[in-house]
């Protein structure tokens, strides 16, 4: 896999030496991550923690003498490969603890521990998350607003193949859907088309579109959804550990390992929109400590997308009509992946490759809707993990042909890739009272928009971008009731100046069942490669050759190149990073050991937004890109000739068009019609309230309410800065899970709001949708499923410019072996 761009050793050393913050974080990582391996002679502790016959998941197991920690799996099991010695095994979950001393381990022998505990656990006390601190911890103890969804809930919804729907009914989520797979996922305001404010991680890799890092192509997932072991969503800035893109949240997805999913299944799904979906997986043991998993599938259906050439589905006169009819009226997706796991004592090696191919997907962008004729997304990753460190690298590619802008008819070709290497270490110190996490990462991005004849369609030339980061976190338990943490990350890229993103939090436990958290954080989102380097036609070129011929007597043989003057949308290398600072307070209480209630209040300060794609001149923001100033005739002309040329152009062109005439980097004339600019500031504030109530064995009721407010803080036109977020929304759900039947019914209501993103600006009426999911186990190997989105078929749209959405009812049959 490619690493960072070509650099000499001297150059790299200079970069490191010139950044003291990076040196500090590198020292932290080296101190806690690159630890010596255990001795060759090993013994094994093979254990299980249970209440009665039921294994307990997420119990933290520590070998006190080695300060090595693990978590129990879904069946309460854990396993250590350690040097021969006598050990103390500490089992902890929340405020509960059991110590087993004098565990003697000898070389090449297995010690079996079966520990039965009598902890009076509430269901929420067994729920843990890893993404907020990059280290496993109970969700009731985490220093972030987080939710997690496990395999039982995921498998009920897996047949639809739409990953964002898994979290659509959770607190604080802003999700806008257009087509089947065109989702924008956000939280805490300022959503937009092609949203990049939520960082998504799947098994440690960034699956976002390489041409626009941070934006997710949800159709490109290369696995069935029930291959997800669990997912976590963090609300609020996460740049202190995850860097650029973790502006308003982080979505972390973990898939099942082959060893934990031996055997296989095949599933056939069919239903409305002429849906036909086939997918499956098989995992097998290849030999001692080696496991293989193969998965794949194919999807074919219609979409909600309709042509807008003759008329629009809603808001006539406001919703722009298009010049090109939909080239395809069907969606086709094929995907597959292969994963190999090798266990090497206490270390695990994972190698995985996958790809997806999608045809006919329509996407709403700020410049209008596009449809991709054929888009291929290959990817791969390698990961080596040990109890105290993890090293990984990934590659994510993109090859898109014949992507058509439906409002212009212009074809777009894209070829890009993104790679990254990351090292992360962790360690507990001070007798377990303090925990350290640290790491470094290096990434490389390349984009190219050449068509089959080598002509660029989006950029003036291919672009390469590298980036580096170092991060760390220290957490310390001051007393039994008080815990604090501080984390920070240094990021540098060719797209932005060096940035430091800090985060601090204090948690205070009033009682064993009540916790208060206060945190402060800062994050950023850098401009995309497209926003900086864009150079693409937005209209046919203008021929002013007749004017050049009329001026020839004064030109003295100098050429003006007026034959085909391109009309362009251009990027802006002067864009600033978007910035957010957030102060957050939260209260969590466990009521009667069955209900868990959380209240979160936040206030955020945002500035330096990237504007919509606007006219280069003529708006209240002034001339957007200073690199494209007023047109300058060739320097070879005399001052008198220059004045004549300028006067002739001003007379021949409408004033608005003349104001856009400029020069490119070579001096040739261009109409710099559109560009971006950094501008504006705003304050946002909100409340997120949620309750999870286990009313009976197998039954749970969830409810949440989200309130959002904002204030634009300067004199820039409010129409150019819109939060695109409802003021109120609420969710309710009833969930049931048993060995034979699982299901849920969920309702989501969203208040009306105004949407403004690029050329799309208009109202979104309030709407409510009900989703139903059910799964029935028919015999030992067969499951029947039902998945209905928008049960009552209420036509609605979720962002102005998006598709009108209706019901999609699916049925599935799954056979396992």
Estimate the mean pLDDT confidence: 90
CATH class of the largest domain: Mainly Beta
Strand content: over 45%
Unreliable stretches, pLDDT < 50, 5 or more residues?
1-39
Q: CATH topology of the largest domain, which one? A: Maltoporin, Chain A
CATH architecture of the largest domain: Beta Barrel
Compute the gyration radius: what is it? 28 Å
Whole-Å distance between the termini?
35 Å
Based on secondary structure, the structural category is mainly beta
Structure report:
The chain is mainly beta and 817 residues long. It has eight helices and 47 strands. The strands form eight sheets. The protein has a 24-stranded antiparallel sheet that branches. Strands 32, 33, 36, 37 and 38 form a five-stranded mixed sheet that branches. Strands 1, 2, 5 and 8 form a four-stranded mixed sheet that branches. It folds into three domains: 33-120, Immunoglobulins (Immunoglobulin-like, Sandwich); 128-534 and 576-611 and 678-816, Maltoporin, Chain A (Beta Barrel), CATH 2.40.170.20; 540-570 and 619-675, no CATH class. Residues 1-39 have low confidence and may be disordered. The protein is 8% helix and 52% strand. The two termini are 35 Å apart. Strand 25 (389-405) and strand 26 form a beta hairpin. Helix 6 (545-555) packs antiparallel against helix 7.
Reconstruct the topology from this structure:
Blueprint: H1 9-17, H2 20-32, E1 43-51, E2 54-55, E3 60-63, E4 68-71, E5 77-82, E6 85-93, E7 96-105, E8 110-116, E9 128-129, E10 137-138, E11 145-150, H3 151-157, E12 173-177, E13 183-187, E14 198-202, E15 228-235, H4 239-242, E16 249-255, E17 263-271, E18 275-287, E19 290-301, E20 331-344, E21 347-359, E22 361-365, E23 368-376, E24 379-386, E25 389-405, E26 411-429, E27 434-448, E28 463-477, E29 482-493, E30 496-511, E31 514-525, H5 529-533, E32 535-542, H6 545-555, E33 565-570, E34 578-591, E35 595-610, E36 614-615, H7 639-652, H8 655-658, E37 661-663, E38 669-675, E39 678-696, E40 699-712, E41 728-737, E42 741-750, E43 753-757, E44 760-764, E45 767-778, E46 782-789, E47 808-816
Parallel strand pairs: 1-8, 14-16, 33-38
Antiparallel strand pairs: 1-2, 1-5, 3-4, 3-6, 6-7, 9-10, 11-15, 12-13, 15-16, 17-18, 17-47, 18-19, 19-20, 20-21, 21-23, 21-24, 22-23, 23-25, 24-25, 25-26, 26-27, 27-28, 28-29, 29-30, 30-31, 31-34, 32-33, 34-35, 35-39, 36-38, 37-38, 39-40, 40-41, 41-42, 42-45, 43-44, 45-46, 46-47
